[in-house]
Design a protein that fits this description.
Shape: globular
Largest sheet: 8 strands, antiparallel
Distance between the termini: 10 Å
Bound molecules: 6-O-phosphono-alpha-D-glucopyranose
Length: 606
């Protein structure tokens, strides 16, 4: 977590850094800070809270300088206050850090004995003191020596007042990208921070470091071996990371879904043969046919997409599939048999638990297929083969469009594998034809945003909410509940509808709204029974039903109708009203929709 940005060039650095920080604010917003280089001194300003708080206390006259580093924080060690904000300073060195220094306590004791005095509770401050302790006139060497004794994860940017146009960066576990400009160079946690200045980037890999000066960048390993890195070109536009007239990024991203779902399958379907081509899957037909088991690794919303994938893959590709929380998988002794394919799903491609679980699965012999959104992210680069979901930058911390794109890709992978097994060409063609219709069906659901807003008004002040679904709509119930708790702070739980009888039914009373996803499928009659059970206990029922439904509609307090489609693709429609419901409730409650408290978009700490 945390976002870091640095620039060294000939223009004033401060405004570039503040603009970059704003694009990284999704990575954390507990505090922010900036350090500008001056000959033999640094000017450092930090403030608790969001970047606008930092901006409010900047003295622009003091900020003149062409080289600097900045940080937006998601707190790990130490409360979110000004003392714990980055940059941290020791002597003439300033440092910003994303990650966790695991052996900081021991290092702090050693450095304390040598006279170092600490002003914060952070692990990061220990690292800057360590570099200062080892500094002997050359910042690069001091950083290398310090990182050799540090355990844990880091993406860092470091400056020294006596080397005023130099930034040293290094990474292990946390993302860092170099922006290569003309007479100016950048370092950041994410390309979004350098967009608008350059499209030429170099992605650093773990164990690498970089020196940036106005006239060039040099990449080497932390153990000082020089390396030649490829410069890559960013192909998307700045417009894709701006709000485009919507009140919030989240709403913009919800409304982008007809386009993003189409982008996920565009050029990848072969309707004639009912087949799919995914360029990034470099496995032969023989290898695809010999996949005996699939393990899906993910966290958060990506994990919910994985659960939808499990239903798809088992039913249509007939391959046993398990979905694992990446954080649990990596710390047990998972059994990987020959013929195991691991699908690693991550919007950011940087979630540390997912990344480490992927590495563990690979060590144990699984084939790895990464499903990511952020091009050039660590999971994308470390996967043997992969598929980009092409959803474009997702800025709202609560994931929406990435989820539907992930589900679309899982559907395509299911068809790909199914066609190498039992799935007939006719059935494949039917599924792909239906997929073509999905973007316009999603639009029909989006058109009901105002009606969903009216329902949101009724429930915005409730304290609890239950979400029920069966079959492929069970993960959608989980995702609906997650969206609500993430952005409106209302306690919400998703449950398989039939499981309600084994506990949650005790909670039902006239104050408990129950969202029931009851689309027409094989378990429809069963869910009618579950709705009756809620109604008998005077719970309030908000149902998501397919067009033409009258039975559940008659039992419900509020009804949201979605168009009919194949059960296979239904999650792409049934999740949309739940995203909108959560969004409108959060807005009515006055919550910070795009940057909900305590959360971050990319969780790069365990
Ligand atoms: C964080 C975000 C969630 C996201 C999860 C997994 O918790 O707030 O929105 O679903 O991380 O992120 P990933 O980038 O791996 O999909």
């Amino acid at each position: 977590m945390c976002g870091i940005v640095g620039v060294t060039g000939t223009q004033e650095a401060a405004s570039i850094l503040i603009e970059g920080l704003k694009r990284l604010e999704y990575r954390g917003y507990d505090s922010a800070g900036i350090a500008i280089q001056r000959p033999h001194a640094q000017y450092v300003v930090k403030e608790q809270g969001k970047i606008k708080n930092l901006e409010a206390c900047l003295d622009w006259a003091q900020l003149k300088g062409t080289c600097g580093i900045a940080h937006t924080r998601w707190a790990t060690h130490g409360v979110p206050n000004r003392d714990n904000a980055h940059p941290h300073v020791a002597g003439k060195i300033a440092l910003v850090h994303n990650g966790i220094i695991e052996n900081y306590s021991a290092l702090k004791v050693q450095l304390g004995k040598k006279g170092h005095v600490f002003a914060s509770e952070t692990d990061t401050e220990v690292l800057v003191h360590l570099i200062d302790d080892l500094y002997d006139g050359d910042l690069v060497t001091a950083v290398q020596k310090a990182l050799a004794v540090v355990d844990g994860a880091f993406g860092i940017a470091v400056t020294h007042a006596d080397e005023p146009d130099l930034i040293v960066g290094a990474r292990r576990g946390s993302p860092l990208v170099v922006g290569v400009g003309d007479g100016v160079n950048f370092l950041a946690s994410d390309v979004a921070a350098v967009m608008g200045h350059t499209r030429q980037v170099i992605y650093l890999d773990d164990g690498e470091m970089v020196t940036l000066r106005p006239d060039g960048v040099q990449v080497m390993t932390i153990s000082n071996e020089e390396i030649i890195k490829e410069i890559q070109e960013i192909t998307w536009d700045l417009g894709r990371i701006q709000k485009g007239g919507f009140e919030h990024f989240m709403l913009k991203e919800i409304f982008e879904q007809p386009a993003t779902i189409r982008d996920a399958f565009r050029g990848r379907t072969l309707q004639e043969t009912g087949d799919v081509k995914l360029g990034g899957i470099q496995l032969t037909d023989w290898e695809l046919r010999n996949i005996r088991r699939i393990i899906i690794l993910a966290c958060g919303t990506s994990w919910h997409a994985g659960l939808v994938g499990e239903y798809m893959l088992e039913e249509y590709a007939h391959i046993p599939t398990e979905v694992e929380y990446a954080s649990e998988f990596r710390y047990r002794s998972p059994i990987i048999e020959p013929g195991t394919l691991c699908l690693v799903i991550s919007q950011s491609g940087e979630t540390i638990d997912t990344l480490e679980a992927m590495r563990e699965a690979r060590r144990r012999g699984a084939k790895i297929l990464g499903i990511t959104n952020v091009v050039g992210s660590t999971i994308a680069r470390e996967s043997e083969c992969g598929v980009y979901i092409h959803a474009g930058p997702e800025i709202g911390v609560a994931s929406t469009k990435a989820f539907t794109s992930q589900v679309t890709i899982l559907g395509l992978i299911t068809i790909l594998l199914g066609r190498r097994g039992h799935l007939s060409a006719d059935r494949g063609t039917q599924m792909l034809r239906e997929l073509e219709r999905i973007p316009s069906l999603v639009q029909q659901v989006l058109d009901q945003s105002e009606a969903i807003h009216e329902i949101a008004k009724v429930y915005a002040n409730h304290h609890n909410c239950l979400y029920l679904g069966r079959g492929v709509n069970f993960p959608i119930a989980l995702e609906g509940a997650l969206k609500l708790k993430e952005i409106s702070y209302i306690h919400a739980e998703g449950y398989p509808a039939a499981e309600m009888k084994h506990g949650p039914i005790a909670l039902i009373d006239p104050h408990m709204p129950v969202v029931v996803i009851a689309t027409k499928d094989g378990s429809y009659e069963k869910i009618v029974g579950n709705v009756q059970e809620v109604r008998a206990r005077h719970g309030k029922i908000i149902s998501i039903v397919t067009e033409g439904d009258t039975e559940i509609a008659a039992l419900s307090d509020h009804v949201i109708t979605i168009p009919d489609t194949m059960n296979f693709w239904m999650p792409l429609l049934s999740v949309i009203p739940l995203q909108l419901l959560a969004y409108h409730i959060a807005v009515i409650r006055g919550e910070d929709v795009d940057q909900p408290r305590n959360l971050a978009k990319a969780v790069t700490v365990e």
